[in-house]
Amino acid sequence: MDLGAITKYSALHAKPNGLILQYGTAGFRTKAEHLDHVMFRMGLLAVLRSKQTKSTIGVMVTASHNPEAQQ
After folding, report:
1. Which helix (H) or strand (E) holds 65?
2. If I label 63, which of 12, 31, 33, 42 is the partner at 20 to 30 A Cα–Cα?
């Protein structure tokens, strides 16, 4: 994918204005609906690292720190 395409699709996954993320040893911490821009960029990073190292790279997503949803 060329830089123009990456720029175009990146704009579709922009970080919401005013959003402040927490980052700790377990990664980015916030509600899933606020992580679209993070997942897009981490996916790009995984692709680039995989191509550079010629190895399989993954992204792990968990919800272990989220409070239980209220009914």
Report:
1. none
2. 12
Active site annotation includes 55: no
Compute the average pLDDT of residues 47-62. 91
Identify which of 33, 57, 45, 34 has the alpha carbon closest to the alpha carbon of residue 6: 45
Task: Read off the pTM.
Answer: 0.74
Write out the two tokens for 33. Answer: 């609906």
Q: Is 12 helix (H, G, I), strand (E, B) or coil?
A: coil
In the numeric block, which tokens belong to residue 61? Answer: 């997503």
Phi, psi of 28, deg, nearest 5: -75, 140
CB 13 within 8 A of CB 44: no
